[in-house]
Design brief:
Layout: E1 2-4, H1 8-19, E2 25-27, H2 35-39, E3 48-49, H3 54-58, H4 65-74, H5 77-86, E4 91-93, E5 98-101, H6 106-119, E6 123-125, E7 130-136, E8 139-145, E9 148-150, E10 155-157, H7 172-179, E11 184-185, E12 189-191, E13 194-196, H8 199-203, E14 208-218, E15 221-232, E16 236-238, H9 240-243, H10 246-253, E17 258-263, H11 270-283, H12 289-292, H13 302-305, H14 323-333, E18 336-343, E19 351-352, E20 355-356, E21 374-376, H15 390-405
Parallel strand pairs: 1-2, 1-10, 2-6, 10-21
Antiparallel strand pairs: 3-5, 4-5, 7-8, 8-9, 11-20, 12-19, 13-16, 13-18, 14-15, 14-17, 15-16, 17-18
Helix pairs in contact: 1-6, 1-15, 11-14
The structure holds flavin-adenine dinucleotide.
Flavin-adenine dinucleotide binds at residues 4-10, 27-30, 35-37, 39-41, 45-46, 129-130, 158-160, 163-164, 168-169, 172, 350-351, 378-379, 389-392, 395.
Length: 406
């Protein structure tokens, strides 16, 4: 059997088939395996989501839930926990059910998968991009790599989607699948940061806040709000709060000017915030406003937020700040203005959607319904999912099932 692509799902598929006694060759374009896996979860690897109930878990996969019921029943979240524990890498569960390897190192996940493949006697061809797939009638006869042909009875395509192409996932699989007769939805970045035009945001690059609320507006009409962790970057906004709404914001951007307001104190109402700020003012009457600003705003944000008050003299002594200006500051902290210009590109995306239409894949086996000896896994399948470990669980499940049935 030949597995093309040594990412998360390809390594799982190769290992599983090898353990079953199949002779497996894994062909990977990079000189190392699992390049994207190694940067996942900021290098910590959010390996799965600890929701053991299949039906509840599947609620996170939108309209793909029905398709995924069979594969997730064969290999679910509990199996992922057992799998990595048996390979010497137990998992720990953190906030919002997110599970990580106990070492919090994505590289350890790659190593565990290598041990698994070693057990299955998988052979490797690294630093070798497949450049052609040869077919006859409705089956694959060989794949071509550096001018040499490799043949097998079964092939698993695990070349991933198009996010972070520098890791090797350049969308080769989408082109082949299309050429082989599959319908493939063109990918768009879905879990991706937002670019904003506001200099006050850019100045705060690197500041992360665990509890902020953001409300989005299309042409000034309120659309939706979300609360969570926000990260300021030199181009705009990121962090789980933003990544998980980017798909919706992308839809709004198609037809409208999109703005947002960030509430820096979502659990404090306007009156309570005013009291809090009055107390800070009272305790610092003789200091300059600019010197106490950091006590008014969430940690690390003063340099950016101060830029939002061009008409307030920040070197005024606190006792001389007018009531009107004080109220302006309070109101601003509940609604910091942002203008969204666009979604960042594939190079910054965690996940891009798009991929082969699920009705063309056998749900029980991951086999193509068009080519008799091809299976498809992971990011090549058109399945939307939020961040939180759901993408990698999809890879473990579809990789295992493909390797189990091929
Ligand atoms: C920055 C970042 C952070 C992420 N964090 C998380 C997280 O914490 N939790 C989570 O669940 N998901 C996360 N994801 C998503 C997750 O990493 C991916 O969904 C997953 O790695 C996809 O695995 P895959 O097997 O489909 O393909 P990939 O991992 O993309 O692997 C495909 C492999 O195929 C190889 N290949 C491509 N073309 C060829 C060719 N022609 N010949 C030979 N080989 C080829 C590539 O080099 C690559 O190694 C993150 C993604 C990114 C980009």
């Amino acid at each position: 059997m030949i597995v093309i692509g040594g990412g998360a799902s390809g390594m799982m598929a190769a290992g599983r088939a090898g353990i079953r006694g199949k002779r497996v060759l894994l062909i990977e374009k990079n000189k190392t395996l699992g390049k994207k896996l190694a940067i996942s979860g900021g290098g910590r690897c959010n390996i799965t989501n600890a929701q053991y109930d299949v039906r509840l878990l599947l609620q996170n996969y939108g309209s793909s839930a029905d398709f995924l019921y069979s594969p997730f029943s064969q290999y679910g979240v509990k199996d992922t926990f057992d799998f990595f524990t048996e390979l010497g890498l137990p998992l720990v569960v953190q906030a919002r059910n997110r599970a990580f390897p106990h070492t919090e190192k994505a590289s350890d996940v790659c190593e565990a998968l290598k041990r698994y493949m070693h057990k299955g006697k998988v052979e490797f061809l690294l630093g070798s991009a497949v450049t052609k797939i040869h077919t006859e009638k409705n089956s694959i006869t060989s794949v071509e790599c550096r001018g040499k042909k490799y043949t097998a009875k079964q092939y698993i395509l695990a070349t991933g989607g198009v996010s972070h192409p520098e890791t090797g996932s350049t969308g080769d699989g989408f082109d082949w699948l299309r050429a082989l007769g599959h319908s493939v939805r063109t990918p768009t970045p879905t879990i991706v940061p937002l670019a904003v035009s506001d200099p006050w945001v850019h100045v705060l690059s690197g500041v992360s806040l665990s509890f902020m609320k953001i409300t989005f507006f299309a042409e000034d009409k309120k659309q939706f709000s979300k609360t969570g962790k926000l990260l300021f970057t030199h181009f705009g906004l990121s962090g789980p709060l933003i990544l998980n709404v980017a798909g919706k914001v992308g839809d709004l951007l198609q037809s409208s000017l999109v703005t947002a307001r960030i509430d820096a104190y979502p659990d404090t109402d306007l009156g309570a915030l005013e009291d809090k700020i009055l107390k800070v003012f009272d305790a610092n009457k003789n200091k300059m406003l600019k010197n106490i600003f950091k006590e008014l705003v969430p940690e690390g944000t003063a340099p950016g937020i101060m830029m939002l008050f061009p008409d307030i003299a920040l070197d005024t002594k606190v006792h001389s700040v007018s009531k009107e200006d004080r109220k302006k500051i309070v109101r601003m902290l509940k609604a910091l203005p942002v203008t969204i210009t666009h979604l960042m590109g594939y190079d910054r995306a965690v996940v891009a959607d798009g991929g082969v239409t699920l009705s063309e894949i056998n749900t029980r086996t991951m086999r193509s319904k068009i080519l008799t000896n091809l299976s498809v896994t992971g990011g090549l399948l058109h399945i939307n999912r939020p961040s939180g470990g759901f993408s990698l669980q999809l890879c473990w499940t579809t990789g295992f099932v493909a390797g189990d049935h091929a």
